[in-house]
Design goal:
- The protein is α+β, with helices and mostly antiparallel strands.
- Helices cover 21% and strands 38% of the residues.
- The strands form two sheets. A nine-stranded antiparallel beta sheet has the order 2-3-9-11-10-6-7-4-8, covered by helices on one side.
- It is globular, with a radius of gyration of 16 Å.
Length: 191
């Protein structure tokens, strides 16, 4: 298993491509509006446990899939970021429902290898426009909640974005000690 995780973290890597539609600052908070194309993702889901209890387990399942735990046994590399879809309650605390996904690398988009772990699903996700706020450091639920709160205040009440879910994104392996990149994405809604 370590070999599969090592291959996914230190093998070929790419960043998910996007188009910056605008860079803005509102109420002292800088963020980007980005457009991501539709793509295939590997995803795992959890209900009933907290973000902190289950996130590591879900990420490991994805890393072992892209690291070779698939039908041909092929290490695919990794396409950052790892994206956790969270569903906040009215008080901002994450509900006990979580989806974690990672984009299938470009070389495998047309025909992704079938997972051997039944918990891992390959799914087509539609294109999306997001408001993206970047921040550094090690990020857990409290850090993502704080940054989501900053972005919510910056966007204000009239900006059309999905308020029932948002995305917590990590671009770095867990052992990277500094220069870490994390983001919170809010899905733009049509006005």
């Amino acid at each position: 298993m370590f070999g599969m995780i090592r291959n996914s973290l230190f093998g070929n890597s790419e960043e998910t491509e996007y188009k910056v539609l605008s860079s803005e600052t509102k109420n002292g908070v800088g963020f980007e509006v980005r457009r991501y194309d539709a793509a295939k993702y590997a995803a795992v889901y959890s209900e009933g446990r907290t973000y902190e209890q289950v996130m590591g387990e879900l990420v490991r399942k994805l890393l072992t899939y892209i690291g070779g735990n698939n039908e041909p046994g092929e290490a695919m590399g990794i396409a950052f970021p790892i994206i956790a879809t969270v569903y906040p309650r009215n008080d901002g605390v994450f509900s006990r429902r979580l989806a974690v996904g990672i984009r299938i690398p470009n070389a495998y988009q047309q025909d992704p290898p079938a997972p051997t772990d039944s918990a891992v699903r390959v799914e087509e996700r539609p294109g999306m426009t997001v408001y993206a706020l970047q921040f550094g450091g090690f990020a857990g639920e409290s850090e993502y909640r704080a940054e989501a709160s900053r972005l919510t205040r910056a966007l204000g009440e009239t900006t059309p974005f999905q308020r029932k879910q948002y995305f917590c994104c990590s671009y770095d392996p867990p052992l990277k000690p500094y220069g870490r990149r994390n983001e919170v994405w809010f899905l733009q809604e049509d006005p």
